[in-house]
Amino acid sequence: MDLALAPETLARWQFGITTVYHFLFVPLTISLAALTAGLQTAWVRSEKEKYLRATKFWGKLFLINIAMGVVTGIVQEFQFGMNWSDYSRFVGDVFGAPLAFEALIAFFFESTFIGLWIFGWDKLPKKIHLACIWMVSIGTILSAYFILAANSWMQHPVGYRINEERGRAELTDFWLVLTQNTALTQFFHTITAAFLVGGAFMAGIAAFHLARKKHIPVMRSSLRLGLIVMIIAGMGTAISGDLLGKVMYKQQPMKMAAAEALWDGEAPAPFSVFAYGDVDKGHNKVAIEIPGLLSFLANDDFTSFVPGINDVNKAQQEKFGPGDYRPNIAVAYWGFRWMIGFGMASLGIGALGLWLTRKRFMLPPGLRTGEDEVPHLVLFRKALSPRFANLYWVVALWTMGFPLIANSWGWIFTEMGRQPWVVYGVLRTRDAVSPNVSQGEVLTSMIGFTLLYAVLAVIEVKLLVKYVKAGPPELTEADLNPPTKIGGDDKNPDRPMAFSY
Amino acid sequence: MQLHDVWFVLIAVLWIGYFFLEGFDFGVGVLTKLLARDRTEKRVLINTIGPVWDGNEVWLLTAGGATFAAFPDWYATLFSGFYLPLLLILVCLIIRGVAFEYRHKRPEDKWQTNWEHAIFWTSLIPAFLWGVAFANIVRGVKIDQDKEYVGTFLDLLNVYSILGGLVTLTLFTFHGAVFTSLKTVGDIRVRSRRLATRLGAVTAVLALVFLIWTQLSRGDGKSLIAMAIAVAALLGAVGLNLAGREGWSFALSGITIAAAVAMLFLTLFPNVMPSSLNDAWSLTVTNASSSAYTLKIMTWCAGVATPLVMLYQGWTYWVFRKRIGTQHIVDVH
């Protein structure tokens, strides 16, 4: 059969498309849930109206986004069985458990409390209503933890044995699956990356409004919150990325060698800045390198040996039999660079923004601004000219997309870098597909989901733009006087709902 | 009773939870065309399930995830085998979720009308297809010695399974109508009750034929008891609806669903997916289940989490216990 249309290829494309798409919404959902909860907490504690307006504004964008995250997540729960039935049979005993935990513990939490939060403004006392959004936030983070533990097991299988008779992997230590260092570092890395998305989203939209001198008090606070989150999360991603890199050098040397296009092992090993390789000949044609840095990234020193692609390939051939154990080197190499490049650019732009809009620190007193003024952008002692100031606001707006690009490439890199394995060292991807599903069926579902997702993307982005432009809502009497009883205060039985679909 | 038997029961419980809860919200979706006279009435209907539909749907995800963990082969065979119907269900659930959240977000008439069509069709189609799927599971499908489904899409369409689909569709719509009369106030409540009577009669005829067919071809003593409960509860639900006892009628339409699903699972046991080619090739609670260790962990998790879920989901229904009518609907964009 034509390899380009082989069920395995199609199933991989479908998984790639639906999962990368799903993961555009996931990090924004995780971070915006927590940020919205934080803003609502600020409202409940300080009673400053700007925080309630901010809560309603970001909350609305959060809801538009989570709707897509939830529905595209349904596909993920069933896709393993549909396209990857041999995978499901082989790993279900191990891999199914964290998935079931995720549904039972995290999904119920999220979905139930989100309903309470959306419809609960006039039904729940202030603090209970606030607790609901925190529950949603906890749900999103727990969900991330379980699914990352499951994915980490594919990256580095532990706590299992192979049952030859049943021809499958069986769980022997669930605790180890949940707490192995791959799971912990991946969780750390993914969550910080998620907050980088949310921080950049918030800062970008706040910049958009501030550049137009609109909704200043709300957007000023939002900008600051967004920028601070960007910096903390950005540094968190860098630290956790370094940790995860070291873990991966030990667990999947091939992935990391591919990330560096390091064909033959070296001691000390250089970090590649740019390379253009000839895969067939197994070497690079062009390479610009920083000596010793790769040894540091892998082993914390500048001298040690780092194995190359050809070394690992040979070692795997000896261990697992003849075959090509190299992933797509170009995707791994460039995916790794796009991930780091876009991620760190967001951190830099965030740090620059926080410096430019600083409130007091080394800021001449004449340039300090009040709550309802757009902050001056001050590089050293003088405010930037309107042209440069505007340039920063535009850059901040574009930066909204950067962490999303970084997140997507991070996943493409780590999943494609594991190939040809679906469970590293245990099960090959080509042995994981559904043997009984026809080419036509996979093609139908792949095209179907792609078209549907494309249409929904257009609808979603247009809605987001509409609600971003509308800005924070004006507050009503009802907003400022939340009920004191659960179920709402019963003064007028015909009072309209605070929110209805 | 071994752990894999416990898990057979738990999977049944998850499906019962799903069909009980999403059953009425599928029904409400269907009623947006059957019952509502204008947009405001449609919105009354949608808002009766507004705060809860998402939580209801998680019962499906949990049933899926738990089947993956407790019976990997069942999960693999079922979802790779029933590929196209499942694909259609997934597409419907995607559109449906977005439709609820996005319909009110733009004022344009065309926008809202399109999403309203979507809500109707994406409620109706899964309500029908779940019945088709379960009827096929009970009837037995072409499964070979490697536990693979080797039939085609057309094999899944037969008189028995289509009847099964019609039963779930009408039963869920009836359940939804009873729910609507319990949750609304004003004219729509009265009409919903009237419609429920008619829907109940149609459901009773179809369900009776389907359940007796199932009992005669695959039943035993236990399934007969479940069937008797289902039939009695259904007739009781129709009668109580006539008498205007909305709460009790809803409880009984829920019991009908629970007992009918229980009956299907009882006719399956100890199979989980019988093979129509050779009895020895059927998937059973033993040859499709996970190891004892995995089942033990899963039992702990489900034992703690499920009651908690029921508790806080129940609390949600209590928070939103007030009836709603056209006067409660506001324009928000």
Largest β-sheet summary of chain B: 2 strands, antiparallel
Euclidean distance between termini CA atoms of chain B: 55 Å
Mean pLDDT of chain A: 92
CATH topology of chain B: Formate dehydrogenase/DMSO reductase fold
Strand order in space, largest sheet of chain B: 1-2
- By DSSP (H or I, 4+ residues per run), the number of helices of chain B equals 11
CATH superfamily of chain B: Formate dehydrogenase/DMSO reductase domain
What proportion strand of chain B? Answer: under 5%
Radius of gyration of chain A, in Å, reads: 25 Å
Description:
Chain A is 66% helix and 6% strand. Chain A is mainly alpha-helical. In chain A, helix 6 packs across helix 11. Chain A is globular, with a radius of gyration of 25 Å. The relative contact order of chain A is 0.14. Chain B has one domain: Formate dehydrogenase/DMSO reductase fold (Up-down Bundle), CATH 1.20.1630.10. Chain B is built from eleven helices and two strands; from the N terminus they run ααααααααααββα. Chain B has a two-stranded antiparallel sheet with strand order 1-2. Chain B is globular. The model of chain B has no long low-confidence stretch (mean pLDDT 95). At the A-B interface, helix 2, helix 3, strand 2 and helix 14 of A face helix 2, helix 3, helix 4, helix 5 and helix 11 of B.
